[in-house]
Write a structure and sequence with these properties.
single chain, alpha+beta, FAD/NAD(P)-binding domain, Polyamine Oxidase, Chain A, domain 2, 6-stranded mixed beta sheet, 5-stranded antiparallel beta sheet, 23 strands, 22% strand
């Protein structure tokens, strides 16, 4: 009997689905990709604004669906980008981790080995007293000695209870909400320590910030789709998978037969498709709680931040935690983005209230011409941006049904809902598929 490639359906072209598709092709599989949206990318995508009347352009500026950053520890994401032809040097402004505030205080990592870089950051932290530095050093060494492991019921707030307020409020809690998109008083200490371990003890450059110079679409979604098509893979954008069945040792997607399938959609779509096959898995996916992220785009002529990214002090009337300068990052002077992570509490007041609070918060920094005020011009609310990463949260497993595996940032695993978590989930799903070369003739393609 002749040997044949495995035929795989990947449902969902977010970062997890793209990772699964690319890695499955590399293993010798024939992949067909289905995506209900007109563009790939999932929750990390971009689109072009309409061109201004009379400017002669085919399209206006690109807008990201939220401001995303990467760190050097995102090794699998960076490797996947290179696989599909992304030039990392052009795509990112890479620099050592620096949490800088508008008042000039900063916590900046060095460029050496992890321990030396951490110590350099600690002893040059301008906003901390000697006591603060020693307290944080003792705290970090303590968790390193415990191999960054804690009791599963602990929150990040509980982990940081012995730290001075200056360290907790200007380092631990901003890092927590940035990485887990869950407020520190509700966020999983176990998952946070895993992130901290990768960033602080993950090797040279693991804590580096990688700030995108290009729209999200150019970082992975469009290059990955082009790579898959060049490999001969059918890519169906704007096509929602209607039904998933297990039949005769294989999988059927909308009447088309495959050897296996990767379910890489949102939890809502995954639960819908999985319900007839795995009701318990579907119930777990459907029961997950989510946190939102709000990104406010601001028009601020003449404004220039002292760094591409500023950390902001969050408070009852100050919703944003980070502010980005696209004049530095993307050659778009006077354009800023303010990011509110863990934003569920802010949604109750509505978009106008959010924009007013952000405009006041950013305007108070006074980093533009006298009398100038940033003006919000677009607000993006991602209501189900990530799962709510709380202690003991139940995440659906990778195995859905015979021949069906799940790939998404909410699937069971050690990472929060980050781009790296999505990519690793996709690669794991590809590795769990049957041997990409089996004996026997290929199953005939069928359509109902």
């Amino acid at each position: 009997m002749s040997r044949r490639p495995l035929r795989i359906a990947v449902i969902g072209a977010g970062w997890a689905g793209l990772a699964a598709a690319v890695r499955a092709v590399e293993r010798g599989a024939e992949v067909t990709l289905f995506e209900m949206a007109p563009r790939a990318g999932g929750r990390a995508r971009a689109w072009a604004e309409p061109a201004a009347p009379g400017d002669g352009a085919a399209e206006g500026p690109w807008i990201d669906n939220g401001q995303h950053i990467l760190i050097g520890a995102y090794s699998r994401t960076l490797d996947l980008m290179q696989t599909v032809g992304v030039d990392l040097q052009r795509a990112f402004d890479r620099r050592p981790l620096c949490l800088q505030h508008a008042d000039g205080s900063r916590l900046a990592w060095g460029t050496g080995a992890p321990t030396a870089a951490f110590l350099e950051a600690l002893w040059t932290a301008t906003q901390w007293s000697r006591r603060d530095r020693l307290a944080f050093l003792a705290w970090a060494i303590g968790w390193q000695l415990r191999r960054f492991r804690c009791a599963p019921e602990l929150t990040v707030r509980a982990l940081a209870r012995t730290l001075p307020d200056s360290v907790r409020l200007r380092l631990i809690e901003p890092l927590c909400v940035a990485a887990l998109n869950t407020p520190a008083d509700a966020a999983s200490g176990t998952v946070f320590l895993r992130v901290l371990k990768d960033a602080l003890a993950g090797g040279r450059g693991a804590s580096d910030l990688l700030l995108p110079r290009q729209p999200l679409q150019a970082l992975l979604p469009d290059p990955a789709v082009a790579w898959l098509r060049a490999c001969g893979c059918p890519v169906h954008l704007g096509r929602r998978a209607q039904a998933l069945q297990v039949s005769n040792g294989g999988v059927v997607v909308d009447g088309e037969s495959f050897d296996a399938a990767v379910l890489a959609t949102t939890s809502v779509e995954a639960a819908r498709l999985a319900e007839p096959l795995a009701p318990t898995w579907a119930a777990q996916a459907r029961a997950m709680a989510f946190e939102s992220i709000v990104t406010v785009w601001l028009d601020a002529p003449g404004w220039r931040l002292p760094a591409p990214m500023l950390a902001l002090d969050e408070g009852p009337a100050q919703p944003a935690q980070f502010l980005f300068d696209h004049g530095t990052l993307a050659n778009a002077p006077g354009r800023l983005t303010a990011v509110i992570s863990g934003a569920n509490q802010w949604l109750e007041g509505g978009t106008a209230a959010i924009e007013s609070a952000v405009a006041a918060q950013v305007g108070a920094l006074g980093l533009g011409p006298p009398g100038s005020a940033p003006r919000p011009f677009r607000t993006i609310i991602e209501r189900r941006a990530t799962f709510r990463c709380t202690p003991g949260v139940v995440r659906p497993g990778v195995h859905v049904a015979p021949g069906v595996v799940a790939a998404a940032d909410y699937v069971e695993g050690p990472y929060p809902a980050t781009l790296e978590g999505a990519v690793r989930a996709g690669e794991r799903a590809a590795a769990l598929l049957p041997d990409p070369r089996s004996t026997g003739p290929a199953a005939p393609r069928t359509r109902s």
